[in-house]
Amino acid sequence: MRIICLKALSGAAILSIAFSALGHAEDNSTGGVSKQEFQAKFDYCRTCHGVSGQGFRGAYPMPRLAGQQPEYIENQLRAFVERRRTNPVMFNVAHVLSPQMVAGLAEHFRDLNPKPLGGAPKEQLAAGKMIYHEGIPSSDVPACASCHGPDAKGNGAFPRLAGQLNDYVISKLTNWTKERGRDPKNPDTSAIMEPITHKLSESQIAAIAAYLSYLE
Fold it and tell me: Model pTM greater than 0.70?
């Protein structure tokens, strides 16, 4: 009887150790990526996009990723890899990321919510708000809110714009055709924006960007 009990105890101990090790492995991973590997990659992202993903103003404006729609982040990283969106730096970053790492980073950035950097001229806010919510009927420009939502937080493939750096928004809307939709045989949701950007004046783009930069 004593031998049987010891054997049973030994079996239970082995199972306990096995499950403990499994649990420890799960605790130290993020979607199949180790916590150490994930943290290293996230820290790398922060060197350009800000310590909390709030964006960064340097030689070039680096976009806010905090609060961004995961589907949009994943789509854009694929676009860089597939050359549908041009950016040599981001191609080098994106093409080495595993699908698990991409998904983990996208989910992590979605959950961040720092205050927007703002900084745009506030006298442009009223005009930007009107365009965002009402569009420009005379130029056949739809309301931005119709796709990006009334709070500009996006939905699925449509990105969050709330809190985005105004100079980044200006740069992207001004150069849309040069950077997006570079593979006509493989179109994506960026095609929706191309005709709209051509109908916006510089002052209208600046107003929209200013309004978005202060939204939380």
Answer: yes
Tens-digit pLDDT profile for residues 165-194: 999 999 999 999 888 877 777 777 788 899
Question: Is residue 198 a known part of a binding site?
Answer: no
Q: Could you give the domains of the chain?
A: 32-213 (1.10.760.10)
pLDDT at 31: 66
**Residue 5 marked ligand-binding:** no
Residue 144 annotated in ligand binding: yes
Cβ proximity of 64 and 162 under 8 Å = no
Nearest to 132 by CA among 193, 208, 190, 199: 208
181: alpha, beta or left? (left if phi > 0; alpha if psi -120 to 50): left
Residue 193 marked in a binding site: yes
